[in-house]
Amino acid sequence: MPINTSQLRLTIIRPVLQNLALWSQAAENLLMGTAAQESGLGTYVEQLGGGPARGIFQMEPATLNDCYVNFLDYRANLKAKIDAYLAPQPDKATQLATNNAYAAAMCRVRYMRVSAPLPDANDIAGLAAYWKQYYNTAGGKGETDEFVANYNRYVGNS
Predict the structure, then answer these.
(1) Partners of 54 in the β-ladder
(2) N or C: which end of the chain has fewer CB within 10 A?
(3) What is the H or E stretch that residue 69 is in?
(4) How far apart are CA 66 and CA 12, in angstroms?
(5) CA–CA separation, 65 vs 71, rounded Å?
């Protein structure tokens, strides 16, 4: 069963993005769409088929590590804000599945590493293309039409 759309948006994603000073309507919609596509809006917190991806945004531990080593380790203030979401246990990779605020912060970090501007907040096809190119990648199994369908199914006009 998916997470309630309004609650995910208003109690997790928006407050996290605002706290990190990384909020925009486009960023919020992109994270909502990413969660809709990657996990059925929280239906799955472990990658189907036994893969390594975790959480509502299905981030892999290797991607998490790369975000730290090649980005956050050079931005102490942002890293401190993100790490403030961490619980003492378990490890960071596990918290991608157990800590939705932390997972949202890391999803936004993954996208903010991209130099291309975010699409318009209401351009769902544009958000889908952005997700495909920069999150799922060309070699990923997901397709933009699936993203659009899942966005409409789980997020809609919320």
Answers:
(1) 46, 59
(2) N
(3) helix 61-70
(4) 24
(5) 10
CB atoms within 10 A of CB 142: 17
pLDDT mean across residues, the chain? 96
What pLDDT shows up at residue 158?
Answer: 67
Q: What is the pTM for the complete model shown?
A: 0.96
Peptide bond into 117 cis (omega under 30): no
- The single residue listed with the structure tokens 């999150």 is 135
Q: In whole angstroms, what is the distance from residue 12 CA to residue 6 CA?
A: 10
The residue among 48, 29, 26, 28 whose CA lies nearest residue 38 is 48
- For 78-83, the CB contacts below 8 A with 24+ separation are 78/20, 78/109, 81/19, 81/20, 81/105, 82/20, 82/106, 82/109
Q: Could you count the other beta carbons within 10 Å of the beta carbon of residue 56?
A: 28
CB atoms within 10 A of CB 134: 15
Q: What is the pLDDT of residues 8-51, one digit of tens each?
A: 999 999 999 999 999 999 999 999 999 999 999 999 999 988 88
**SS3 category, 77:** helix
DSSP code of residue 89: S
What is 106-143 written as a DSSP string? HHHHHHHT--SPPPPTT-HHHHHHHHIIIII-TTSS--
